[in-house]
Amino acid sequence: MINLEFHRILVANRGEIALRIAQAIRDLDKLAIVIHSNDDKELPFVTEADEAYSLGSGDLSQTYLNIEKIITIAREAQADAIHPGYGFLAENADFARACVDQGISFIGPSAEVISLMGNKSNAREKASELGIPVLEGITGDLESLVKKRLQLPYPLLIKPAAGGGGKGMRIVKTADTFEQEAHAASREALTYFGSGDLYVERFLDGPRHIEIQVIADHHGNRAHLFERECSLQRRYQKIIEEAPSGFISEYTREKITSMALNLIKGIGYTNAGTVEFLMDQNQNFYFLEMNTRIQVEHPVTEMVTGVDLVKEQINIAQGHPLSFKQEQVSIEGHAIEARLYAENPGNDFLPSTGRLDGFDLPLGNGVRIDSGYRRGNLVEPWYDPLLAKVIVRGENREDARKQMIKALKEVRISGLSTNRDFLVGLLRSDYFKENRIHTRLLDRNIGDILHTLHQQRESYELEPLLAAATFIALYNVEESAVATRSPWHQIGHWRILPEIILKSDDKIHQIKYRLQKGNERIWLRINERESSVSLERRDGHHYWIRVKNQIIKVWGITDRSEILLDLDGHLFKFRRMDILDRRYIRLDEKQKSKKPGKIFAPLNGRVVQINVKVGDNVKEGEPLLVIESMKMENKIMSDHRAVVEQIEVSIGQQVETNQILLTLASL
Fold it and tell me: What is the C-alpha to C-alpha distance for residues 565 and 573, in angstroms, rounded to an integer?
């Protein structure tokens, strides 16, 4: 029987989960040790750790996937145990075995169990043996699956055999496209999990994704902490999760949790894990896979049960029994988690990289924030684009939904694109309100959701927004100024210009202004229409601005030539054309250099596939090459019928945004 007491625990991960685990370690009065790549040395999980050790530079195989290097650091740091977090080596049996071989406790299940459940074919066989319904499927290396492609059932789903999290997943409808998609899936799987082996299963159209949180100790105690609803996904990665599910009945809950417990009993599972199922509209469910680690979305379970899963993991690894019994766990309220990603939903969720010029997240009032970044950090293209997780709990699903919208409206991120506005729109949609969600919702209805979001933005009149932007652009208050009732006591410097020039959505607006000191306001002429504007109230970056007879409550900041306005979950950006901004000089020079026929990189990343060669004829919308960024592959398409004239890059090459990739000549 295990009977240990850890003093020094190494976290073999990065970002928000590394910081979350380190906090739990310290809460247990133990020392938190982290490892980091050189790119990550300024991130909070490093700066807030008790000790930090560098993995050096290089790709994932040289840093967070380098077992030998991590074990060497653990021994040097005299770590008693290693917590793997999620992703990377969390479900790598060789890593778990290497820890034990070196006398270091692995905070998770045994290497044998990880190996069993990590092989998706064996996991399904085991689940089937234990009476759990499964979807048919096969596993194998890339070459063997390609040879069998004509015998496979279509449509089907390709998945990495060695990991989850949506990485490398592909839906294939016909045998004609199987080889191309399998190569892409295998490449992503190899990059992220260290193995290119794949699993192919029958594709279930429009199901729900329901997962059961389970946990077991070394004393024979097992428990479930109910279910999570994880059906809202983009690119096979979850963006909103809930606990409990608002869809399943009590009868189904009892049945599905019992099967999850039977599974972990049947395989001798210990520590925390998640049993995942696909469920149709009739609440028939099928075993999908088991993740032998902590999940990204574990906070929603913690919010409704009050159980700290990471502390339980550590205590179980020390040999302690579970701190609770099954009958002591109940569901209290409803929790929702929204993942804030650095991406552009309006451009096929293309990842966004850059510096976080502004990074203010809601605090207090029952809102939990799990984040791996702080203001000023650089978001690199080498890792997952997750910036933060916002978690709320309400009395019921509708209460939680409203609280989440309120919390997201307080998120202020500048410097790169995020999905904040999209998340607010999704939570406001009838799909979510009426709980008509499934794993294919965004694939099928993204156009409808984005159109509704666009209509909501368009409902704001432009002239009041321009007036508010002009007022904030001209109004400069020192941080130390004392707030008074009259805004003119706060005025710092009014730039004496006959006009201010603002650009919005590629339109230029020349705005003349004049101070009207006697009435404590300014007069504006916007697009030949006159307005009087006054500041009714100000609280930090929150402004109450009167435009004629309308009062606009807006959060606003200026950043060199940019003015950002946030109204009710919609972020508007204006640019001052009368101010020199070197960022735009560089960008404008690149834009001016663009010529017809040139295909430019839309993001930073690495070229992993080139689909064409010089002289090939291509159609509009045909994939030319693939750029990997933030652990996702992005296809670069031809924008017209053409012939490939020149290829400017090679496979494996790192490229920057706006770099020339190919030259096409029109047919």
Answer: 6
Token pair of 602 as six digits: 């839309």
Q: What is the pTM of this model?
A: 0.85
Interaxial angle between packed helices 298-305 and 309-317, expressed in degrees from 0 to 180 and rounded to the nearest 10: 100
CA–CA distance, 274 with 474 (Å, rounded to integer) = 54
Q: State the chain's mean pLDDT as an integer.
A: 89
Q: Dmax over Cα atoms in the chain, in whole Å?
A: 84
Which residues on adjacent β-strands are paired with residue 571? 566
pLDDT for the residue numbered 485: 41
Torsion, Cα 419 425 427 429, to 10 degrees, reads: -140
pLDDT of residue 645: 87
Contact 149, 156 (CB under 8 A): no
Q: State how far Cα 81 lies from the chain centre.
A: 28
Domains of the chain, first to last: 8-107 (3.40.50.20), 136-202 (3.30.1490.20), 213-230+245-457 (3.30.470.20), 462-576 (3.30.700.30), 584-666 (2.40.50.100)
The three-state (H, E, C) secondary structure of 289-318, written as one string: EEECCCCCCHHHHHHHHCCCHHHHHHHHHC
What is the DSSP annotation of 327-363? Answer: GG----SEEEEEEEESEEGGGTTEE--EE-SEEE---
Spell out the residues 6+ positions from residue 664 whose beta carbon is closer than 8 angstroms to its own.
Answer: 597, 598, 599, 618, 638, 640, 642, 643, 644, 645
Q: Per the structure block, which two tokens stand in for 638?
A: 């031809």
Active-site option among 208, 253, 293, 420: 293
Q: Average pLDDT, stretch 152-158?
A: 85
Average pLDDT over residues 540-548: 91
- Confidence at 373, pLDDT banded by 50, 70, 90: very high
The dihedral built from the CA positions of residue 81, 87, 89 and 93, taken in this order, carries a sign that is: positive
List the structure tokens of 176: 């004609």
pLDDT score of 594 more than 60? no
More confident residue, 259 or 603: 259
Q: What is the pLDDT of residue 480?
A: 33
Cα R_g (the chain), whole angstroms: 27
For the chain, give the percent of residues with pLDDT over 70.
93
Active site residue 546: no
pLDDT at 492: 42
d(C-alpha 658, C-alpha 405), whole Å: 35
The token pair at 622 is: 């045909």
The predicted structure's pLDDT at residue 601:
87
DSSP element (H, E) containing 464: helix 462-474
Q: What is the structure's pLDDT at 530?
A: 87
